Amino acid sequence: MNSVTSTLSSPLPAASKTSRWRTPAGVLGLLAALLLALMMLSASSGALHIPLTALPRLPFSADGPDEALWRSVLLDVRLPRVLFAALAGAALALSGAAMQALFRNPLAEPGLIGISAGGALGAVGAIVLGGGSFLILAPSAFIGSLIATVAAYHLGRRYPGMAGLLLAGVAINAICGALVGLFTYLADDTQLRSLTFWNMGSLAGASWPLLAGLAPWTIAVGALIARDWRAMNALLLGEREALHLGFPLKAVRRRLILLTALLVGPLVAATGAIGFVGLVVPHLVRLALGADHRWLLPTSVVAGAIALTLADWLARIAVIPAELPIGIVTSLVGGPFFLWLLAQRRH
User: Fold this and answer.
1) How far apart are CA 72 and CA 76, in angstroms?
2) CA triplet 148, 152, 155: central angle to 5 degrees?
3) pLDDT digits (tens, 9 = 90+) for 121-147
4) What is the pTM of this model?
5) Do 233 and 9 touch, CB atoms closer than 8 A?
6) How many CB atoms neighbour CB 246 within 10 A?
7) pLDDT digit string (tens) for 211-270?
8) What torsion do the CA atoms of 88, 335, 180, 157 make, to the nearest 10 degrees?
9) φ, ψ at 11 (rounded to 5°)
10) 10 Å Cβ neighbour count for 284?
């Protein structure tokens, strides 16, 4: 077992010693530097331009009325939004990587088993029945995603392998979609406007209190998911092989599904529907670095943060002084990539 575990935890094939930046650690470092640069660019851009050279000192001091205005915009609006975009992108990419390992399918994401649809149903129900306050919206979306996940798991475990879980996810997605349509039909004009913006995704609700509530939860749940990277590597060999290697597959599967629901549910309440990040980012990282989850998971976290920070930046500068819903930006990029991915798998 020790030798097998060692094999499963072995690094990717070593790169040339003269090209250290092409190693997984080098790529991860470059992506982290890119994320930092992109966050600074995003914080400086928008309807009010803040010079990049002023960003490092603005949190501590401001000289004159112009810098006082920059400081207020940076600390009250831009910085919490940029940090929230990075946090949400990291969580979505990590959940996508976990689902793709669990289903052994690069096209999997949390929405496949109804996690996102359950969260959407809870949020839409809260908007129509409860007025849309975030104090009602967040727990409703979380409970919705959790109920959908538990229902999919209990329905799907009656069948061998993952086929039952996938079929249960298809049914739950259809039921949740129908109920969302029913709530939309019952909504009044004000609620329809909220539903429209929520369905297209937005990070406009980002604030320091929201970050203070979600960041510790997201980091803690994400760390628990990352602890199972050896089991995810074993699953690449097949379910039977993973069992023979000594991994408690049922417990791992149950734990990963539950943790993914706990990770995605609160984010869905805060951001609305943001698609394709959980699907596209882990797949791109896998193409670049291989399937060793010791590197795939942390690199997907950083790459997901880059993807959603970039999408939010584009959404804010594309139609200044207005902004595009971020779900439109991610879908415009992710949709064509998904079609390309399907075409590649066909061949």
Assistant:
1) 6
2) 135
3) 888 888 888 766 667 777 787 788 888
4) 0.85
5) yes
6) 11
7) 998 899 999 999 999 999 999 999 888 878 888 888 888 888 888 888 888 888 788 778
8) -80
9) -70, 170
10) 17
